[in-house]
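Homework help board

Subject: predicted structure for assignment chain

Our instructor gave us this sequence and asked us to write out the predicted structure in token form, then describe one feature. I got the tokens but I'm not sure how to describe them. Can anyone check?
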Amino acid sequence: MSQTRASTPSTSPLSQPRPTLRSQVTIGKNQKKIQEAESFLAKHKYLPARENSPPNRTILYNVIDTITDMEKKDFTAHFQIYNEAIKHAITLLKANDEEYSENKIAEAINKAFDKVNSASKIEEKLNSVQEDIYTKLDEMTNQLKILPQETGPRPTYAEITTTQSFPPKLSPELNRQRLRSHVQVKTRQLLFRINADKPPHPKDSDKPLTQYDDPKILELFNSTLKEIDAPEEFEFVTASKYKNSNNILTEMNNANATKWLRNIINSIQFETTMNNAVDLIQREYGVAINFGTRKHQRAPNLLHH
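My token output:
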């Protein structure tokens, strides 16, 4: 695409390609045509005096409309001038269109690079957060290694036998593995709320899900996935009802499966197929992580010397 006018400088991180000799000649010819067209139209009073900005499309269309609306007698008398004016107006319209297209392409490229830069910043932030977590885990592990120094009299046999034992020491790498494992489990978990007044299969039974045991719920959920034509590799691997509540905590075989079912269209289809016996709770929930403690207590001294 040939260059017509100096456009707004691009902020794109890409370096501008060096023009070849052939492209430079083409650019020079196009600029010369544009200058000739503007000079001709300005000379014959179709355009105002030369300004910093090029004529817009409305002005150029008005030039053509003015000429074409003239009476045949006047048009014939000045045919050469009118013919050239129309040609020059068309030249400027083409240049205007090319400049508009170039600006749109440059704008699209800049937006794409902005998105890439944003993604890079997010990745850097995640890496920083990950390093912070590892640092905190190492600090906690080092603190666990420091045992309180006992002062005073030596404990008796009765005190030693009634003292709670210390939990086993965990290496920093094992702590990291436990953290990763909990995070991975969370990405595969989905929480459902049971609607006790709606049975999943009203045609067969009016029994609500609150009266189903966990294996039966797991079988029902997987059969529902097949009914809504979910990908064959997606399935539920566990389903557990919370005690004293109408919630069911489930785990699927991979994170992509939970992401697919969280999609609003798929979740509505899943709930509708089960007669709205359950509602998928879209919000996230925390996973408890027990890192253990070094704190201990002494039981009452029941033995005497």
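Reply (TA_rk): Your tokens look well-formed. For the description, you could write something like this. Residues 79-145 form the longest helix (67 residues). That's the kind of observation they're looking for.
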